[in-house]
Write a structure and sequence with these properties.
The complex is a heterotrimer.
Chain A lengths: L1 E6 L10 H20 L4 E4 L11 H16 L4 E3 L13 H7 L4 E2 L2 E4 L5 E4 L1 E2 L6 E5 L7 H6 L3 H6 L4 E6 L1 E2 L12 E2 L10 E5 L5 E5 L2 E6 L10 H7 L4 E7 L3 E8 L4 E8 L5 H13 L6 E11 L9 H10 L4 E11 L12 H12 L12 H15 L9 H16 L2 H4 L3
Parallel strand pairs in A: 1-2, 2-3, 3-4, 8-9, 9-12, 10-11, 12-14, 17-18, 18-19
Antiparallel strand pairs in A: 1-15, 5-6, 7-8, 13-14, 15-16
Helix pairs in contact in A: 1-2, 9-10, 10-11
Chain B lengths: L1 H15 L8 E2 L5 E3 L8 E2 L9 E14 L2 E14 L2 E3 L6 E12 L2 E10 L16 E2 L16 H19 L7 E5 L9 H15 L2 E6 L5 E2 L5 H11 L6 E10 L2 E9 L8 E6 H21 L11 H10 L3 H18 L2 H9 L3 H9 L1
Parallel strand pairs in B: 4-10, 10-11
Antiparallel strand pairs in B: 1-12, 2-13, 3-13, 4-5, 5-6, 5-7, 7-8, 8-9, 11-15, 13-14, 14-15
Helix pairs in contact in B: 2-3
Chain C lengths: L7 E9 L2 E6 L10 E5 L5 E13 L3 H12 L11 H4 E13 L4 E2 L10 E4 L15 E9 L2 E10 H6 L2 E4 L6 H15 L3 E6 L18 H4 E5 L7 E2 L2 E2 L16 H14 L3 H6 L11 H15 L1 E4 L2 E4 L4 E2 L6 H10 L3 E5 L5 H24 L9 E5 L3 H4 L1 H6 L3 H8 L5 E7 L7 H6 L2 E4 L5 H9 L9 H5 L5 E6 L6 E4 L3 H11 L16
Helix pairs in contact in C: 9-10
Classes of the chains: A alpha/beta, B alpha+beta, C alpha/beta.
């Protein structure tokens, strides 16, 4: 009997806060130690090890130190790109880690004479498990790879097969991700023993006709955006350990507790801002927050006053003084009658940005079809993500500018127009 | 009671009509040579191809408005051309005209004076001459027994004269050997008719056109009192004469009726036979072969399923020459309207009423 | 060819407005359904349509009978009717359908000139039909009798769809072919959503030419099937996505059962089915065990869900405990983006098929209704819901048992830009109130007099004289009776494969090979 660990969506470096970063590191370390303890034969990560394609070197450094333990335990680490740790210009941190021998990228793709995408299997030497998969591209582009995939070849391969992927599957999309671009299951090769998914930040195990054991572990730590709220509510995070011989015999979820969380939701509807601030302060004061990550969500429509009258900084300070290790206020769902402004619906920044781009992409006058409509909105979001990247330590200003500019041009696919190719 | 009487009426005939002895053709007129009836003298008509055209001429007339002392009639004559079964292009128009007749007292007797009015310009050339339509009411050829001839009889005469005239015009569009078939006998029956008949026969002779008269009905008899057509038909039945045939029954040698008279069956399944007259001179010139060819053409034209044995050309000519009741009603309305416009309706009305009691009675009895 | 040179086919000889009598010129073979033209003096013309043919004869009936007897029994001896062309002929009964002059097209209120000649209508006479509307849906080409004129018939998609369509015919007359052509046209326009419940899996083109071959298929066509080919979506619906109202008119419940369902839904929301199946008791709810038992059985039959050993099991082909949470929303979203969504229900039982349709149609309908409330309906495209064997949901007895979403759409959908395209062999069982709401009727051949009557009685134009014509419609031939057409249009819908090949050729699609149009699977 053999075993492997299936992990995804670690998103190292997603948070800037040092406390969270530290927790993130601890969770990774704990996970790897658990894998060693369980004597898994290999570890498979289905994408988004890092939150960005070129993360902070300190984050990289810490991760290498942890991953090295696997090497020392002679447990190979296999991975594919995710949608975050992929860079348009082709070289990302995953490539560097592979070059350094930390991990092996199991996506081995080539194109045959007829234009079909041929995936070669990587065989784990110890177990004989055959692993292949499709890495993510910029959101939605991997669906083009699936369309051209030589499935027959993959389906006819004998042996224990694992298909790793980093996409949403249309049929298994959770309701809260209804707008996400996904790939229908019919695009996947049938008959694999295990489908190691990533990208969906919700744990699930599913079967569909012709496809058994489609597994999404969910984020290992806490993902980003709304995920930390769910973790604070008590949603379990972790990874899967899969036992197999010729077929999968057991799939077990191993919980890794990243932190103790406290989620508090306050509805300010009908109250004026001062009343709400006072009441909120009182209620928060009653919470037991020592050593916890505290997420506070404010929602509803204030009868009067401004949303900024609720001083989240002060409240945050109060909670911290009571021992909270990290506090996050989410006021995106809080509105006020007095001031309408340009409200965009959404519970978190990511959703708000999504909605904003989608609603306003039509007002941008461009000639290129790929910059219009939904695709254009996705490109805009990707560009924003690139523009958010900070200058790396040791990186010159010029180098930073060039990197961001190049990435941006690649993302928008306008190199021809600018004559930069 | 009436059933018994009817039976007795039939038995009376049964007891007095005998067709064992068919007799021989009997013509009351002088100058007619008859031929005995024997089964050996039936002449078969075999199918012959021929390029001769057959032109059929017929006419119709109806009184539009009448009284004992005047009559307005609508007259129509028509012709059509055939070659056997096939209609041939033919350009002569359908002739239509009104004849208007009134009575006057002349030479101690009632006379009828007429005028003719063509419906269209192209009919003008075919009209009879008006003076030819003036008769004494005691003209023998018009009278019915000893009764004074009714004024409406003039209409029939006008139509008959117009038929001759149309046939005469037709000759100009025909070639040697073509045939004109008149509906009825080639004999002139009315005063002044001879003029028209002679003009036609002369012209036909000059052009080599063959004239035929075909009568639907015949009042000829045999010497045993049987109808001549019926007797010949029975003779054929008894002799099992199959197919188409003709049987010459008489020759007439009078000036205005110089013809060979035959009885003919023009279709194998026809149950009717007809009297066919052919100009005697032409008959002799044609010889047996030629005469058979003419009859063969008639037979080919007599294959219409609606009336086997009767030439379709005459059916066609009759259809277009016929004056229908609806038309009469239409014209009557026009004429009466014109009369009242003239403001002298009473002049006509009182005379109309003197003669239409019978019509009124018919309406009442219905 | 000048109008003078155009062949005369007959002459007006009598009749009245209800039936003008035309004598056919010998050999011209006027056909039932032919469109004829009678010129008027001032340059205008009347279009006439033949609705009956009969024999005319100058020969009395008894004579004809006798002649026929003679011939049949061998006594004819060369007898025939002479002058046959003159004496025996065909009489056509026609009706005026449109009067045209330079400036207008109107329903005619006059007769053609007495004794005027008539000729067959040409493309030029019907040129006014050739101007396509703003968002055209192609239905076929104008047909005169069995002759096809080179004039495309389009109706404006936006109006045509939202005012509902009834496609009526008996089997084998070309209903599916017509629908395929219609859907292809909708894909051309990309201005409306089309939701197709494909009971026979015949529209997508799994094993032949189909909608998948459209040049816009990649961006504007979605296909759902329990056994999806590569690139298509698996038809799977999560049980949590089902709301009680989706079952209206599809699965019948007693009042007690409905009350129980409402209570469970109020309390458990998305988990109402699970809790019924597990037999979870709601306090204060007076519902008998028997009722719950019956509900469990009905849910098992309809959805394949039951409890075994404490575990919830769903063995349905299309309903699932884990997958398909967003399927219905995805479909509605696609429809709102003017996509055509084809759902293959060929492997499903009737109940499941209707339930799938009900789920999506309900979501769509209520979404649009909500948008109207917010004043946002104008931003949404019209959507058509295509359903086959419509009496399953629109028959009078079905509606009496309980309203369903389809009948609701048929009655109210127009207000919310949602239209029904109902296909049926039996129009007579659909209530008149619904039939008359369906403002376009595409009538294909139908031998059943009762069916023809039902359709004709609710048509947009007077089709009272079209009975024989409808009975004689051949495969592919149809009459389009619509409030959006000036008259009942006789059309011929080309065979879908030929239609596609021609379109591809016109679009210079050199790569398209009809014979190879199968799903490329590797």
């Amino acid at each position: 009997m053999h075993k492997f660990a299936h992990i995804s969506d670690i998103h190292l470096g997603a948070f800037r806060d040092p406390v969270i970063r530290d927790l993130e590191k601890q969770v990774l370390s704990e996970t790897i130690e658990k894998c060693i303890e369980l004597s898994v034969d290999f570890v498979l990560i289905s994408g988004d090890i890092f939150h960005v394609g070129i993360p902070d070197l300190s984050v990289v450094n810490d991760s290498i130190r942890i991953f090295r333990k696997l090497q020392e335990a002679k447990i190979p680490l296999y991975a594919i790109y995710g949608s975050h740790d992929y860079t348009p210009n082709g070289t990302s941190i995953i490539d560097i880690l592979e070059t350094a021998g930390i991990l092996t990228n199991v996506m081995r793709a080539r194109t045959d004479d007829e234009g079909y995408v041929v995936l070669d299997f990587f065989t784990d030497p110890k177990t004989g498990a055959k692993i292949t998969g499709i890495s993510a591209r910029k959101v939605g582009l991997e669906s083009k790879v699936y369309e051209k995939l030589d499935k027959e070849r993959l389906e006819h391969e004998k042996g224990f097969k694992i298909f790793a992927f980093h996409s949403g599957i249309t049929e298994l999309k959770p309701a809260f991700l209804s707008d996400m671009e996904t790939v229908p299951i019919s695009c996947f090769p049938k008959g694999f023993d295990y489908y190691a998914g990533g990208h969906i930040h919700k744990k699930s195990e599913s079967d569909l006709p012709g496809y058994s054991k489609i597994v999404f572990p969910g984020p290992l730590f806490t993902g980003y955006g709304k995920d930390i709220e769910d973790t604070a509510r008590g949603v379990k995070r972790g990874f899967y350990v899969v036992s197999f011989a010729e077929k999968v015999s057991e799939i077990k979820f191993v919980t890794i507790k990243g932190f103790d969380g406290e989620f508090f939701e306050y509805d300010a509807t009908g109250k004026n801002s001062h009343e709400a601030a006072k009441e909120l302060s009182h209620k928060l004061g009653e919470l037991e927050v020592n050593g916890k990550v505290v997420i506070v969500r404010l929602k509803g429509e204030l009868a009067g006053g401004k949303t900024s009258d609720i001083d989240s900084v002060e409240l945050c300070r109060k909670l911290t003084s009571k021992g909270a290790i990290y506090v996050q206020f989410n006021k995106f769902s809080l509105t006020t009658k007095e001031y309408e402004g340009n409200r965009m619906g959404g519970d978190d920044i990511s959703t708000i940005e999504d909605n904003y781009f989608r609603e306003n992409i039509g007002s941008v006058k461009v000639n290129q079809p790929h910059l219009k409509g939904r695709e254009g909105a996705e490109s805009a979001k990707e560009l924003l993500r690139i523009l958010r990247q900070q200058q790396k330590i040791g990186e010159t200003k010029t180098g930073y500018q060039d990197r961001i500019t190049t990435s941006g041009i690649e993302t928008l696919k306008i190199s021809e127009e600018l004559g930069t190719k | 009671m009436s059933l018994e009487a009817a039976k007795k009426a039939v038995e009376y005939l049964e007891n007095n009509i005998f067709d064992d002895d068919l007799g021989n053709p009997h013509f009351g007129a002088t100058g007619v040579t008859t031929f005995p009836l024997t089964s050996k003298d039936f002449r078969p008509i075999s199918e012959r191809s021929s390029k001769r055209r057959l032109v059929f001429v017929d006419g119709g007339n109806q009184e539009v408005l009448g009284a004992p002392n005047f009559s307005i009639q609508l007259n129509r004559v028509y012709s059509c051309a055939w070659n056997g079964r096939n209609r041939v292009e033919w350009k002569l128009p359908r002739v239509e005209f009104f004849s208007s007749t009134y009575s006057c007292f002349k030479n101690n007797e009632i006379h009828y004076e007429s005028s003719v009015m063509a419906s269209s310009g192209e009919s003008m050339d075919y009209l009879p001459d008006a003076p030819d339509l003036c008769f004494s009411s005691m003209e023998r050829s018009l009278m019915n027994g000893n009764q004074r001839a009714g004024i409406e009889r003039v209409g029939s005469v006008a139509r008959r004269f117009a038929e001759w005239r149309l046939a005469l015009k037709a000759i100009h569009d025909l070639s040697v050997g073509d045939v004109i078939v008149m509906d009825g006998t080639l004999q002139s029956n009315f005063k002044n008719e001879g003029k028209y008949a002679k003009a036609l026969t002369s012209a036909a002779k000059a052009r080599g056109i063959i004239l035929i008269g075909l009568s639907k009905t015949s009042t000829l008899f045999t010497t045993t009192g049987l109808s001549l057509l019926g007797a010949v038909n029975k003779l054929a039945e008894d002799g099992q004469i199959k197919g188409n045939w003709y049987y010459p029954v008489a020759e007439s040698h009078s000036i205005d009726h110089d013809v060979v008279i035959s009885v003919a069956r023009l279709n194998p399944i026809a149950d009717r036979v007809f009297r066919v007259e052919l100009q005697r001179e032409e008959y002799e010139k044609l010889g047996r072969f030629g005469v058979e060819e003419i009859f063969s053409l008639l037979c080919q034209n007599s294959c219409d399923a609606s009336f086997p044995g009767y030439p379709y050309g005459l059916i066609d000519a009759d259809r277009f020459a016929r004056v229908s009741y609806d038309e009469i009603e239409y014209y009557r309305g026009l004429i009466i309207s014109h009369i009242s416009k003239m403001g002298n309706g009473s002049k006509f009305l009182s005379h109309i009423h003197s003669g239409d009691a019978h019509n009124l009675l018919n309406l009442l009895v219905k | 060819m000048s109008k003078d040179e155009l062949e005369i086919v007959g002459q007006v000889i009598g009749g009245n407005v209800a039936g003008i009598a035309i004598r056919e010129k010998n050999g011209k073979n006027i056909e039932l359904g032919d469109l004829l033209v009678a010129e008027e003096n001032e340059g205008g013309y009347l279009i006439l349509k033949v609705f009956n043919l009969g024999y005319g004869s100058q020969i009395p009936t008894e004579v004809r009978e006798l002649a026929a007897g003679l011939k049949l029994e061998g006594y004819s001896a060369g007898l025939d009717f002479m002058d046959p062309k003159l004496r025996n002929y065909t009489m056509a009964s026609v009706k005026g359908i449109l009067r045209l002059d330079k400036n207008s097209q109107k329903i005619p209120k006059v007769l053609p000139t007495f004794f005027s000649s008539v000729r067959l209508a040409t493309k030029e006479d019907l040129a006014f039909l050739a101007t396509p509307p703003k968002y055209p849906i192609f239905l076929g080409q104008v047909r005169s009798g069995s002759k096809i004129l080179d004039i495309d018939v389009h109706l404006d998609g936006e109006s045509f769809i939202t005012h509902h369509v009834l496609i009526a015919a008996t089997t084998g007359r070309g209903k599916s072919n017509l629908v395929k052509v219609l859907l292809w046209s909708a894909l051309d326009a990309r201005k409306f959503g089309m939701f197709v419940i494909d009971a026979h899996d015949e529209y997508y083109g799994r094993s032949g030419v189909g909608l998948k071959d459209h040049q816009n298929a990649k961006s504007s066509l979605k296909y759902y099937s329990p056994d999806a080919p590569p690139g298509a979506n698996t038809l799977v619906i999560n049980l949590k996505a089902l709301e009680p109202e989706y079952f209206d008119g599809i699965v019948s419940f007693t009042d007690a059962q409905e009350d129980a369902i409402s209570a469970y839904y109020r309390k458990y929301k998305k988990d109402w089915i699970e809790n019924i199946v597990r037999g979870i008791v709601i306090e204060d709810l007076e519902v008998t065990r028997k009722t719950i038992g019956v509900l469990q059985r009905k849910l098992r039959r309809a959805l394949g869900v039951y409890e075994q050993g404490g575990e919830l099991i769903c063995d349905s082909d299309i309903f699932s405990l884990t997958a398909g949470e967003t399927t219905a929303d995805d479909i509605v979203w696609a429809l709102e983006k003017c996509q055509t969504v084809v759902v293959d229900t060929s492997r499903l039982g009737e109940e499941a098929e209707l339930l799938i349709g009900s789920i999506v149609a309900s979501k769509l309908f209520y979404s649009y209704k909500k948008s109207k409330g917010k004043g946002q309906l104008d931003e949404k495209p019209p959507v058509g819901v295509v359903i086959e064997e419509a009496p399953r949901v629109l028959a009078e007895d079905k509606i009496e048992q309980g309203d369903n979403i389809y009948s609701r759409i048929a009655r109210e959908g127009r207000k919310f830009k949602v239209g029904l395209i109902a296909i049926t062999q039996l129009a007579s069982v659909i209530p008149t109130t619904i039939l008359t709401n369906m403002n376009t009727k595409i009538i294909l051949g139908n031998e059943m007099a009762s069916e023809r009557a039902a359709i004709m009685n609710s048509a947009a134009q007077d089709l009272s004289d079209e009975d024989r014509t409808i009975a004689s419609l051949d495969k592919g031939e149809a009459i389009v009776s619509s409030i959006f057409a000036k008259f009942a249009l006789p059309i011929y819908t080309p065979r879908f494969e030929d239609f596609v090949a021609k379109r591809k050729k016109n679009n210079k699609d050199d790569d398209f090979d009809l014979s190879k149009s199968r799903l490329s699977v590797k």
